[in-house]
Design goal:
282 residues; mainly alpha; MetI-like fold; 11 helices; flat; cell membrane; transport; MetI-like; membrane; ABC transporter permease
């Protein structure tokens, strides 16, 4: 019995011998936040593949060129329009209407949106009118605007401005409401003037929503200018697309569609640059 106990003691680990610890495992840092990112060239590569497949289908005769012309035919139509000068005539007319209408609607929408977001009286009155008038298709008001403003550029610009105004006002007062109230109360506790609070706290906090609204209003302006030009205009991308469709010139019709798409891409790029410059603090 003593021999068995002594053998067990001999096998017991000594407390003086250091115990070998387990290998430490590195844990991935998970507190970096959500930073969405996209591939730099992924979208362009996908677009190039679609165009290549489209061109191949047209070249081998799988698609009737009357219904869907090949990309090469569309590029040729754009080139011919540019060389004849018709492209610049239509494009300049549309850009003028979009620019003036968008600026007027955006300026009025920002002013009304901030008033609704900051004033109780303006909120009670403004939200009621916006809720009642926003669902109305603005292009349906074009005949009435022609009666009020006459035949010319004014009704088309007013139609675009109305469509931009409501979307801008909604995005602005929604952005003002989204500003954390503890930041505003903290500024008020230091007796910061109201104008400074608006400029230093509310405006930066609402700016992401305002820029997101700009994306929407740019598309709204583009849709409205095409619709207005189809109804009553001699020059403009919308009038050109309608005329090409009536004459079954599908290559020129799609050329106008491609021009509208390029314009949308350019506007999106400009807004991305604005977000990078103005929202660098994010």
């Amino acid at each position: 019995m003593p021999s068995a106990r002594s053998s067990m003691l001999d096998r017991a680990p000594s407390t003086d011998t250091p115990v070998k610890s387990e290998a430490t495992r590195r844990v991935r840092f998970r507190g970096a936040g959500f930073v969405p990112a996209s591939s730099r060239f992924g979208g362009w590569i996908a677009l190039a593949l679609v165009i290549a497949l489209w061109q191949a289908a047209g070249s081998v005769g799988l698609v009737n060129p009357l219904f869907l012309p090949a990309p090469s035919a569309i590029v040729r139509a754009i080139y011919e329009l540019a060389m004849s000068g018709a492209l610049w005539q239509h494009l300049s007319a549309s850009l003028l209407r979009i620019g003036v209408g968008w600026l007027l609607g955006t300026a009025a929408g920002i002013a009304v949106g901030f008033a609704i977001g900051l004033s109780r009286l303006a909120r009670s009155v403004g939200i009621t009118f916006i809720s009642a008038l926003f669902p109305i298709p603005k292009i349906a008001l074009l005949p009435l605007l022609i009666l009020w403003l006459g035949i010319g550029e004014e009704p088309k610009i007013a139609t675009i401005a109305l469509g931009v105004f409501f979307s801008t006002a909604i995005s602005v007062y929604s952005g003002v409401d989204a500003v954390p109230r503890n930041l505003i109360r903290m500024a008020q506790s230091f007796n910061v003037p109201f104008a400074t609070i608006v400029r230093k706290v509310i405006w930066p906090g609402a700016l992401p929503a305002i820029l997101a609204g700009f994306r929407i209003t740019a598309s709204v302006a583009l849709l409205l200018v095409v619709s207005a030009e189809m109804i009553g205009a001699q020059y403009g991308i919308g009038a050109f697309v309608l005329q090409a469709g009536n004459l079954m010139q599908t290559d020129q019709l799609l050329a106008g569609v491609v021009i509208l798409s390029v314009f949308g891409l350019a506007v999106g790029k400009v807004i991305n640059l604005l977000e990078t410059r103005l929202l660098h603090w994010r």
